[in-house]
Design a protein that fits this description.
Length: 205
Amino acid sequence: MAYHHGDLAAALLAAGLELTRSGGPDALTIREVTRRVGVTPNAAYRHFPDRKALLDAVSSAIQADMAARMATDRVPAGPRESLRAVGLGYIAFALAEPGWFAVAFFGAGDTSPAAIADSPAYLALAETLDMMVHIGDLAPSAREAATWSCWSTVHGFAELALRGPLRHVGGAKVWQFAEQAVDTVIAGLPAPGVTEATVTSGTTA
């Protein structure tokens, strides 16, 4: 991937995406990225002051690609069907791109809520839950908790499938389990009429 002229920042980003796709966040170094592009490390620092800045840019590009793939699986349907597509799309991306998935949200080391507030994948989840509240399919008091219950379900499942005991299970069986996990968490989202105390305790009337 020798660099001759043009947009050096884009070339560095492309090299970073190539490295992390196969090796995850640990594979990304300024030295290796610049070696692949064919420039000196000093040239890279004009665009990315340090490794974290480059990793942040790579993470943003991965999240955009992830959201685009998730969108292709979403069809006009009710919010719960859309939420199911978002969740399964998240898991599908993780299984197809384990290196990128390891970078997408926390590869740069920032685990604060603000770090994911503008993530396209996170926004797909948030917008779907907001629509459920708007049409009366989700209790407003449960909106915040629904974000974390849905996200932890799909993210945790993906981690178990990639690095836990589910990695030893066949692909078709893993996908069956993924569908069951997503369907279960969606079925548990409370509709209006469920009291605040009930939502907090996790029980249903």
